[in-house]
């Protein structure tokens, strides 16, 4: 018995959920946003109540202290020692981490080194881990890697067609991301379809501000759209997705303020995608409002977004030689019925058909018609629960080993 925190620490935000384990009961959840800016926000939900306030939060360390004080303030815990484990989402595990791991100083240093594979995330993740380890020394710290689920990809899928020495010597390869989400929804899809996961061929579409598509055969990742970093693949909120690599050199040589690779990568990561094409926003809700008002660039951004998603989904249906189900998940995938409708209309050749009524009703279950040859599902992702389960596995293992030693 114990309480476990699942944490997703970003460069300017920190999302969390507090679970009672092993019951998997959500006690509370919340988010800190705009960390390091003048007016940071904190939101917390529990027992049907919602609370929020604004104040300046300087860094992640202050954020973690505020979180723990908030748990005490609202009576969600009476003592810090009630928290027996903290699980941390880490985006990039590289070749080092192909499964979750208990964090020590060595592991923490290795996570920092892997920041080159996910600079937007892996620099922020260790700051959160360190803060929790300092303030909750009794809690078991566990890192759960987004890339771990994709470690089953074969060489033909994860290698780039460049001289192989760059993989052998520098570990340059496709690693993917969102693996925790793809794993969770694929397992739940098997339950919804009442079929063993090892019999299923699935395509999972994690569509949010960041987006990735994954081909899953028998419960294992066969291929995924993100690459060495989360910049590759489909068009996203602020990320370009796949482009001709020559574009980078061309921009460096011809655009004054993009005169080095770092500047171009910043442009591709933070100012491209839906934001770059629309010139307005990276948020699909705002984009839809602009489309409704007749904004041509907003409509173009939407059309390009749908186009890239359809291409990757179709590619992976071909790779798997057919699929049993297509899964929509994450913020846009779960909540935007128009995106789902427009994608499926462009894939009707594969025998997909969704019920307009079920599609509009949203957001948990099968939305395809009885006649559809491929099932289409909407499954809300729950990466936090997967993280909590990983912590519980390690905690039980640690307890059993300690107990056995004590008996001996």
From TrEMBL:
Q: Provide the residue positions that the database annotates as binding substrate.
A: 89
Query: What are the binding positions for ATP in this chain?
Result: 15, 206-210, 283-285, 331-335
> What protein name applies here?
Acetate kinase
* Gene source species: Lactococcus fujiensis JCM 16395
Q: Which gene encodes it?
A: ackA
Q: What does this protein do?
A: Catalyzes the formation of acetyl phosphate from acetate and ATP. Can also catalyze the reverse reaction.
Q: Which CDD domains match?
A: ASKHA_NBD_AcK_PK
Q: Which InterPro entries match?
A: Ac/propionate_kinase, Aliphatic_acid_kin_short-chain, Aliphatic_acid_kinase_CS, ATPase_NBD
Please indicate which residues carry the site annotation Transition state stabilizer: 178, 239
Specify the pathway: Metabolic intermediate biosynthesis; acetyl-CoA biosynthesis; acetyl-CoA from acetate: step 1/2
Q: Is Cell membrane among this UniProt entry's keywords?
A: no
- Any one GO biological process: acetate metabolic process
Catalytic machinery residues: 146
Co-factor note (free text) = Mg(2+). Can also accept Mn(2+).
**Residues that hold Mg(2+) according to the record:** 8, 383
